[in-house]
Write a structure and sequence with these properties.
- The chain is an alpha/beta fold.
- Helices cover 50% and strands 12% of the residues.
- The chain has two domains: 165 residues, Response regulator (Rossmann fold, 3-Layer(aba) Sandwich); 60 residues, Arc Repressor Mutant, subunit A.
- It has twelve helices and six strands.
- It has a six-stranded parallel beta sheet, with helices on both faces.
- It is globular.
- The chain starts with 15 loop residues before the first helix and ends with a helix.
Length: 243
Amino acid sequence: MIDRRTPTSELTVGSEASSDRLTPAIVAGMAQATPSGAITIVLADDHQVVRAGLRLLLQAEDGFEVVAEAGDVATTERRVAAYRPRVLILDLNMPGESSLPAIPRLRQTAPETQIVVLTMQNDPAFAREALRAGAIGYVLKEAADSELVQAVRLAAEGRTYLNPELGARLAAAPQADGPPDDLSARELEVLRLIALGYTNGEIATRLYLSVRTVESHRAHIQQKTGRTTRAALVAYAREHELV
């Protein structure tokens, strides 16, 4: 019997409050309740409204079971370790640490879990780095309604899905060993925003980072590119078609 003094929201599978108190016995019980052969899914996005919409989209599909949700990288890692889903749907931009460096850790923790990135980042450099890190799918949020279900089904079979537009741009792009001057995905993101005229404070707010972290990224970008002024960084970004 449910204790009426306990808010029911704390008992919701995948809620932020409940899953941090999960025990192995509870997780095992949840696994037994999952339909046999279902594609189990963990949703990781920092916007609760987005997660709710994605849950509705996915749960409407035969054979899909959303077992947990997360709103940041640290929580995502705990959910994946606890639930071992067939597929993790992962937003690239969440508060705190970038999701990209977490992909190899997630794959090491749960090799059976395939990762589909769902993001607004439509730059081929991000798609390339995500796939290199261990993701198997890359879907743009603007196309989630039409592409996400297919990407999840393919991921569950161990097959790659890449947004068609990005795939065409990747195929047309000159082959290179990596991003220009070995810039990381986060550094590329900061550089792009600098080139678009954002201040350090605005970049920090947009990327859920501290101003000091943005300043550190900017210093690394300047060191790697040899460009020390905003004008030079803007020119560099344009040369490499980052804006």
